[in-house]
Amino acid sequence: MAGQTIRLVGAPVEEGAGRRGCVMGPDALRTAGLRENLESLGHSVTDLGNLTPESVHGLSVPNPSIKNLNAIAGWTRTLFACAEKLGGEGVVPVYMGGDHALALGTVAGHACAAHKAGRPLFVLWLDAHSDFHTLTSTDSGNLHGTPLAFACGLDGFAPLLGAPLDHTVDPRHVDILGVRSIDPAERAFLLEAGVTVNDMRTIDEHGIPALLRPFLDRVREAHGLLHVSLDVDFLDPGIAPAVGTTVPGGTTFREAHLVMEMLHDSGLVTSLDIVELNPFLDDRGRTARLMVDLTASLFGRKVFDRPTRSF
């Protein structure tokens, strides 16, 4: 992936999460040197700044627990339009979040761009949670738990864009890796849809390469586009504390870097989310620096190139 043309897009959305602070995520990634690290690897990087959400009013759904529906709909519409546009420009967008609700727009927008290109979109979901709730099934009402269900075309999401999605992601083209918290309703949806779910026990038993390599082979054989959505809580909170939804037992530093290195070696990644970074909960920028390092690995940093750093 050397010599890529990368576009950094800030999406300071925090209305989808249960805690405030993700609004600072994009600037924390900038401060931690995301652009400089990518440029040092030979990539052309342009920072498009932070997006602002479309103004949306008057939406409602039957589930009374849903929070901030109008605000999230505004973000979804803005990010959908941005992703659809960038997805057709031959660049690699990196969406800097913000909570995982930003993927309501990014994944759906790239699915639309992929359809226009006549290619299937595959999604690698690196997350402690499956985020496969609908607007009906969620009890918390936090919409960062719904984007993958939305992208895969589950019912009831029409308010977000004002109409149902024309082009969805085939659930069989989705791989959730590192999950360790799935609600009963999500489990039923996932089984019915046919999504591949590799939890931490599966990683412990088989290892990252045995799980990730077959998925990448399928993307390659289908001439697919690959969107990667990287949630901070994919990592164990012991090394990445800056997240509001900590779940013990996540991936190690080495496992996470191996995923990124394998993705780089595949040459298949066409877009990336970095989400749920909450600097308010961080320890002297430790998690932000780790997310920058992981992104650098995805874009080609080798072991010999890594700076010596104490986390």
TrEMBL record:
Family annotation (Pfam families): Arginase (PF00491)
Note on cofactor: Binds 2 manganese ions per subunit.
Domain of life assignment: Bacteria
GO cellular component: cytoplasm
Keywords, alphabetical: Arginine metabolism, Hydrolase, Manganese, Metal-binding
Named cofactor requirement(s): Mn(2+)
Binding site for Mn(2+): H100, D127, H129, D131, D231, D233
GO BP: any one term: arginine metabolic process
Catalysed transformations (reactions): L-arginine + H2O = urea + L-ornithine
EC number(s) reported in the record: 3.5.3.1
Pathway terms, separated by semicolons: Nitrogen metabolism; urea cycle; L-ornithine and urea from L-arginine: step 1/1
GO molecular function: arginase activity; manganese ion binding
SUPFAM superfamilies referenced in this protein's UniProt entry, alphabetically: Arginase/deacetylase (SSF52768)
Protein family membership: Belongs to the arginase family.
Protein name: Arginase
Source organism (scientific name): Roseibium aquae
